[in-house]
Amino acid sequence: MSASATEEPAFETVEQDGKIEVRQYAPLIVAETEVTGDMRDAGRAGFRLLADYIFGNNTARSEIAMTAPVTRTPSRKIEMTAPVTRVPTETDSWTVTFTMPSKWTMETLPVPNNPAVKLREVPGELMATIRFSGSGQMKAHKARQEELERWMAAHGYEATGAPRYAGYDAPWKPAPFRRNEVLIPVKPAQD
């Protein structure tokens, strides 16, 4: 990775089928906040809160490098079904997440000054993912989520958590060149 490259979470590809991958992610630390609204508005509000933290609104007044992706996960507690087909609504709560750069630990990261921003360790996870381009609208994420869920069912994977909607690029990048993903935590289905 060059000095100017944006760090992304470390993973190993377990299986690949075109734009769909199953990845084993390494453990990581995230800064997250919960916001309410439609996916786009919640993403903007959450981004502002998290950016405020990494740009120095923390106990050390330290800047923390930006990473990719920014993820949005519906945070309303819902009953798990397989596949996970529920579509978030306009009034849902969303958890918006930044991954912390790998050089930081829970002991070395500055504490957020804003109590709405929380730091959390995430254990390694197996994730089914699908990549697509575009502006990252809810309709596009829903369509890719359904495509990914069909693939998971056909290839022996069960969802173990809610889908995450990830955006990797700045909003000023032209939509056809933006990288988006739907990520779903999975486990191999039992026979």
From TrEMBL:
InterPro entries: Reg_factor_effector_dom_sf (IPR011256), SOUL_heme-bd (IPR006917). It comes from the Bacteria. Pfam families: SOUL. SUPFAM superfamilies: Probable bacterial effector-binding domain. This is Heme-binding protein. It comes from Henriciella mobilis.
